[in-house]
Write a structure and sequence with these properties.
Length: 407
């Protein structure tokens, strides 16, 4: 559908004065009719309807093959090159111009024989050779971005007189409703989100570069199927670096997906909301910070180390030990020690008047070196030794006295 005269006027305001054309030229150029609301074009000479720029020349001539409207006034005698308005072609007298669809244009003048020239083959497409090249270049660029079926939009933009740079700006405007911009927004959705958040939008090259790095990282861990457009867009929207993506995927694959059953069991108990069937995807959610994910995994590894020794580790304890810096290997070694000392110490604390010493105290002593917990265990040990020694001494003396008395 043709633009209205007001729309056309606004589009021309973007262009330098020397590059502007009239609304009537635009209608002829595109082979369209003015909307019903548009004013009828003024009668004009045939050369004006070509609207291809001034050619100059002083002789007289008539262009054949172009049919001006019936109400067009008789043009003043001009050389054929003047009617085409393509720039100086030379000569002061007669001239012959070839290349226009229809009969050749000819004219005679007092100055003698003029020069000859060819008009670009534009009447069938409405575009000059340079404009055709621009359309081809822009379409090739869009194709490289995975954006197709925009040939008409590109052509219309070029017809409006937009340069390649102007069209590029329109396309990359995240808030534009232009068809080209909408197609761009669909292909590069994170830019619209970034703009809404007050972040700078990325150039297509930078955007595609990040997508490529994310995809290569996931492929290296054997989860290339997770490199979905919506996932990549989420990374870009939230400024997740390729390094962080690698850390997230590595964390999910090496420390969860490939973890021992006890660690997985502890993780499911502590964080049942995590999707165990697709743990890698869960860890790729930018809403969850990487440090928080790392802490959760460490807690699960500590809890799993306790389960190896048939000891249940409270989530709060696992969190405390993780924050204290206890690693998976330290947890495995520590709970092995706790499993050895706790049963006897716990029994002694129950049968004696000594201090309490159970799993909680053992965890504090083994992992943190808590002095009070250590003293409690040593006190129970001393009480046990004293009871044993006292019991043994009384038995011996009694036995001696008994024997002595019997004899």
């Amino acid at each position: 559908m043709a633009l209205t005269k007001a729309e056309w006027a606004r589009s021309q305001e973007r262009l330098p004065r020397e590059d502007r054309t009239s609304y009537e030229d635009y209608l002829l150029y595109t082979g369209q009719s003015a909307p019903a609301s548009a004013a009828a074009p003024q009668g004009r000479a045939a050369n004006d309807y070509l609207g291809l720029g001034p050619l100059g020349g002083l002789g007289a001539g008539v262009v054949a093959g172009v049919n001006p409207p019936a109400n067009a006034p008789t043009p003043e005698p001009l050389a054929a090159n003047d009617y085409l308005r393509l720039g100086p072609l030379g000569g002061l007298g007669a001239g012959v111009v070839a290349g226009v669809t229809g009969a050749a244009a000819s004219g005679t003048g007092a100055g003698g024989t003029g020069g000859t020239g060819k008009v670009p083959n534009t009447l069938n497409t409405g575009l000059t050779g340079q404009q055709i090249d621009s359309v081809a270049a822009i379409k090739a660029l869009l194709s490289s971005y995975g954006i197709g079926d925009l040939g008409d939009s590109v052509t219309n933009a070029v017809i409006k007189g937009y340069s390649e740079d102007t069209i590029d700006l329109i396309m990359q405007d995240p808030n534009s409703s232009d068809p080209l911009a909408l197609a761009f927004q669909k292909r590069f959705p994170a830019n619209k989100a970034r703009s809404a958040a007050g972040k700078p939008v990325l150039s297509p090259a930078a955007y595609l570069g990040l997508e490529r790095q994310y995809t290569e990282t996931m492929r290296s861990y054997g989860v290339a199927g997770l490199a979905k457009p919506e996932t990549l867009s989420s990374f870009i929207s939230n400024d997740v670096s390729p390094t962080e993506v690698a850390d997230r995927v590595g964390l999910a694959v090496t420390r969860v997906q490939n973890a021992d059953p006890d660690t997985k069991k502890a993780l499911a108990e502590y964080y049942p909301m995590l999707n165990q069937t697709d743990i890698v995807s869960s860890f790729l959610d930018p809403k969850e910070g990487l440090p928080a994910l790392q802490r959760k995994i460490t807690m699960a590894e500590i809890g799993g180390a306790g389960l190896v020794q048939n000891m249940k580790v409270a989530q709060s304890t696992a969190a405390d030990l993780a924050d204290f810096g206890v690693t998976k290997d330290e947890a495995r070694k520590g709970y092995s020690t706790i499993a050895e000392i706790t049963p006897r110490a716990d029994f002694l604390s129950q049968i004696s008047q000594g201090p309490d010493y159970g799993q909680t105290e053992a965890e504090a002593e083994v992992f943190k070196g808590t002095a009070s917990a250590k003293r409690a265990r040593e006190s129970l040990t001393s009480i046990e030794q004293a009871r044993f020694q006292g019991s043994a001494g009384m038995g011996k003396n009694s036995l001696g006295k008994s024997r002595q008395g019997s004899f």
